[in-house]
Hints:
The structure is a single chain. By secondary structure, this protein is an alpha/beta fold. The protein has one domain (about 5-255): P-loop containing nucleotide triphosphate hydrolases (Rossmann fold, 3-Layer(aba) Sandwich), CATH 3.40.50.300. It has helices at about 45-50, 75-80, 100, 120-135, 150-165, 180-195, 210-215, 235-245, 250-255; strands at about 5-15, 20-30, 35-40, 60-65, 70, 85, 110, 115-120, 170-175, 200-205, 215-220, 225-230. It has a six-stranded mixed sheet, sandwiched between helices. Helix 4 (about 120-135) packs across helix 5 and helix 5 runs parallel beside helix 6 (about 180-195). The longest helix has 16 residues, at about 180-195.
Amino acid sequence: MSVVPIISLDGVSRVFGNNRALDNVSFEVFPGEVHCLLGDNGAGKSTLIKILSGVEQPTRGTIRFNGEAVAFRSPRDAQTYGIGTVHQDVGTIPLISVSRNFFLGNELTRGWGPFRRLDHANANRIALEQIRAMGIRRVVDADQLVGTMSGGERQALAIARALYFGAKILILDEPTAALGVKESKIVIDLIKKARAEGIALVFITHNATHALTVGDRFTVLIQGRAASRFLRGEKTREEVLNLMAGGEQFEAATHGD
């Protein structure tokens, strides 16, 4: 494990008018690890993810990349540092093909000047190779419409796309929330595969079982504060569920966590 986290938040707060969405939160993500971010609705998870991905900027505190202070003024800034975000709806367009979705906004072309045109053959080949590398075998035609893919397969497409375009840090926002048991297993396996390749992952989930299955580090947010931070094996599932419900909120506050 790297001594220095690839990305960290140090004492970050975010205030919107009279609402303190985040309050003095510190958060670290290491290469080849899964950091699970847990908490109920309104706990501050979305705001933390927006700060990591450059959508929002901290009111106070510091973002560090490999130990150096940085400022993300936009999602493009975050992307230049290798931060890829996959949202719950994965951002795919159901009525266009797998390869068109894969290269959306980064279309492959061939030729030059007025003779430039889309390179469908290479786009299809690369898209199919990349999702197969994620373990997806049912999709055999890159011209297949994304709307015909399962939820797990769409997550695989989005993750493969992010990694292909250079993501070193992968933020997964509730990737299993709308999936059944079989599809959730596909996503959990994808997370394990990315971790094994040295990718740093932030896994946002309400599902304690999924978190404990794959997580290495855990942060529980309650009302914008990091109520608890712990490593794999340090808490039982019941303890984690109690934390997510706010059961140790006052204990955390008492200990200055």
